């Protein structure tokens, strides 16, 4: 809306203005009329469009644009806000229904964009090997996606049988650097098979662990609702790592110094503040990147006033709230240890777990706080005060240490603490893809250990 005051010095100018306003008003009504007519036509077309499947139809808008309509958090509801004339329905396989063509193709790069939105790879641990690990040389539409916790020979057989286009393997099948691809190494053999079959392989691993609403939030939820906090917070990235504070005697000197500093780091942010009346100069604060720190300091040392007043501060990276490794939950409703065991077995779909009761604890002892870490969680859980630890595996001595502190430990075996999340992720991924893409959880994937 425009807001302005016009003073017309002549009747001709006033008349000209009225004509201009009339023309703008007519143009606005014409635009609105055309828009309403277009929307009315679209509503008619949508109401007459036959459903392309028994559960949903999908919009013909490009996938790359459609991605922008979805939430970036795992905690978002499947009932997603979408653009005008996209209807929301519930079904066993999808909760988002699109209007338009059901024959829409989905390219690999577009699927990767969806995966990045669900769990940014930047959340993964620095030591991890995540992302696209195998990419086919000949691009093809993605029609079938297979989810697995581990990529094994049995899972690869399953993928080839269903003509899979993309395997999402929670654990990266390629982790350490390799110098050759040979058949004698089982992981390299799987990579060769994927390349020959034109199957892409993607691994999210610790990005799923760390993201809010990911594997660890799912795992701790097995014991019921509670006040959940992150054990090891993920830190955000920042382009500036240091702050330089110094003083100059005049605006002219400040201008000269800043011109030299700009050469050191074009991304610096200048913050100026005028000193108190009794001060003898102007106090300046400049942030710079790590690579620009040394040349920036050398520049300031060439000037008398800055060199005598220079102080260097290291900036901490900001925490990303809700994201990180491990979870601690203060349960809304404390439960007996025996009940906690039954709950976690049901949540993980297991008939047996391994239990080590904490010193002085019994099956009737109350569980008020529980700390979890999917996979091998000893390093994350170490030192955390809780009534119960839940993880996939810990060493003998790590279990003894926890028990001595009065902490009960439940071990499910490594992948059993992670695998159940695949079904949850399947639903969250499926609603963000067109109906032409089938998302399937592997039936061949299982933990290598079993109780006999």
From TrEMBL:
<dbReference type="GO" id="GO:0005634">
    <property type="term" value="C:nucleus"/>
</dbReference>
<keyword id="KW-0539">Nucleus</keyword>
<feature type="binding site">
    <location>
        <position position="418"/>
    </location>
    <ligand>
        <name>a divalent metal cation</name>
    </ligand>
</feature>
<feature type="binding site">
    <location>
        <position position="171"/>
    </location>
    <ligand>
        <name>a divalent metal cation</name>
    </ligand>
</feature>
<comment type="function">
    <text>May function as a transcriptional corepressor through its interaction with COPS2, negatively regulating the expression of genes involved in neuronal differentiation.</text>
</comment>
<feature type="binding site">
    <location>
        <position position="209"/>
    </location>
    <ligand>
        <name>a divalent metal cation</name>
    </ligand>
</feature>
<dbReference type="Pfam" id="PF01784">
    <property type="entry name" value="DUF34_NIF3"/>
</dbReference>
<dbReference type="InterPro" id="IPR036069">
    <property type="entry name" value="DUF34/NIF3_sf"/>
</dbReference>
<dbReference type="GO" id="GO:0046872">
    <property type="term" value="F:metal ion binding"/>
</dbReference>
<keyword id="KW-0007">Acetylation</keyword>
<comment type="subunit">
    <text>Homodimer. Interacts with COPS2. Interacts with THOC7.</text>
</comment>
<dbReference type="GO" id="GO:0006355">
    <property type="term" value="P:regulation of DNA-templated transcription"/>
</dbReference>
<comment type="similarity">
    <text>Belongs to the GTP cyclohydrolase I type 2/NIF3 family.</text>
</comment>
<keyword id="KW-0963">Cytoplasm</keyword>
<protein>
    <recommendedName>
        <fullName>NIF3-like protein 1</fullName>
    </recommendedName>
</protein>
<feature type="binding site">
    <location>
        <position position="414"/>
    </location>
    <ligand>
        <name>a divalent metal cation</name>
    </ligand>
</feature>
<dbReference type="InterPro" id="IPR002678">
    <property type="entry name" value="DUF34/NIF3"/>
</dbReference>
<dbReference type="GO" id="GO:0005739">
    <property type="term" value="C:mitochondrion"/>
</dbReference>
<keyword id="KW-0479">Metal-binding</keyword>
<keyword id="KW-0597">Phosphoprotein</keyword>
């Amino acid at each position: 809306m425009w807001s302005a005051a016009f003073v017309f010095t002549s009747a001709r100018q006033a008349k000209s203005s009225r004509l201009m306003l009339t023309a703008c008003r007519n143009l606005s009504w014409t635009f609105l009329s055309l828009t309403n007519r277009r929307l009315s036509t679209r509503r008619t077309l949508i109401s007459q469009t036959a459903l392309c499947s028994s559960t949903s139809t999908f919009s013909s808008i490009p996938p790359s644009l459609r991605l922008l309509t979805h939430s970036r958090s795992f905690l978002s509801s499947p009932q997603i806000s979408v653009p005008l004339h996209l209807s929301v329905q519930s079904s066993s396989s999808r909760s988002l229904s699109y209007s338009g063509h059901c024959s829409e193709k989905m390219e690999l790069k577009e699927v990767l964009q969806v995966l990045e939105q669900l769990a940014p790879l930047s959340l993964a641990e620095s030591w991890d090997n995540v992302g696209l690990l195998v990419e086919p040389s000949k691009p093809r539409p993605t029609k079938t996606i297979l989810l697995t916790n581990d990529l094994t020979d049995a899972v690869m057989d399953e993928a080839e049988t269903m003509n899979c286009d993309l395997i999402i393997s929670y654990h990266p099948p390629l982790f350490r650097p390799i110098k050759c691809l040979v058949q004698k190494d089982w992981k390299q053999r799987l990579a060769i098979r994927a390349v020959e079959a034109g199957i892409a392989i993607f691994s999210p691993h610790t990005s799923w662990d760390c993201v809010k609403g990911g594997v660890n939030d799912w795992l701790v939820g097995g014991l019921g609702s509670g006040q959940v906090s992150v054990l090891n917070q993920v830190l955000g990235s920042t382009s500036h790592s240091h702050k330089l504070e110094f003083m100059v005697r005049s605006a002219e000197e400040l201008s000269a110094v800043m011109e030299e500093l700009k050469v050191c780091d074009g991304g610096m942010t200048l913050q100026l503040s005028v000193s108190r009346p009794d001060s003898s100069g102007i106090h300046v604060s400049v942030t710079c990147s790590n690579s620009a720190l040394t040349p920036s300091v050398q520049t300031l040392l060439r000037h008398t006033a800055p060199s005598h007043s220079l102080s260097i501060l290291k900036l901490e990276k900001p925490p990303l709230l809700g994201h990180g490794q491990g979870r601690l939950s203060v349960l809304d409703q404390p439960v007996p240890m025996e009940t906690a065991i039954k709950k976690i077995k049901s949540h993980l779909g297991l008939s047996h777990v391994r239990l080590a009761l904490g010193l002085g604890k019994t099956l009737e002892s109350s569980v008020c706080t529980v700390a979890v870490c999917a996979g091998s969680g000893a390093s994350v859980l170490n030192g955390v005060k809780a009534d119960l630890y839940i993880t996939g595996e810990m060493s003998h001595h790590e279990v003894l240490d926890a028990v001595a502190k009065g902490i009960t430990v439940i071990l499910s075996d490594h992948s059993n603490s992670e695998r159940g999340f695949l079904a949850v992720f399947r639903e969250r991924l499926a609603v963000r893809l067109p109906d032409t893409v089938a998302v399937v959880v592997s039936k061949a994937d299982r933990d290598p250990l079993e109780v006999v």
